[in-house]
Amino acid sequence: MDIHRTLTSLFPMGFVIDCGDPHGESLEVHGLPRGIVPQNCEVLAGGHARFCWGRERQEIYLVKTEDFLVFLRICPAGPGNGDGAFVVSRGYSPVDDELTLDFQTAMLKSIKVLCSAPIGRRST
After folding, report:
1. Is-contact 17 27, C-beta < 8 A?
2. Which of 90, 74, 79, 80 minimizes the C-alpha distance to 32?
3. What does the pLDDT look like over 6-52, one tens digit per residue?
């Protein structure tokens, strides 16, 4: 189980950057095209953020992979960055961890609060 490898699987077109958080909760994936969605996972929930950060709305997702539940947001890149997108990992929990259900419940509540039109479960 490696969260870096999991993020690479979710977004194979990008590259993972560690933003220095000692717990690995500040990982980003850069070099992505606009309109990207997580791959190789089950989307448990997600939607468009109610609020705009910068120029456009962000997409927020809770996804399940073989090893992790991952809470992330997809953001539009700034004008000087090729007009693409990047991903910010906001937290994750190993699938087999005893706290996974608590993590999933908390992230689903966050999505209900943050998203204007939450989406339900689907596989990608």
Report:
1. yes
2. 74
3. 999 999 999 998 887 655 567 899 999 988 999 999 999 999 887 76
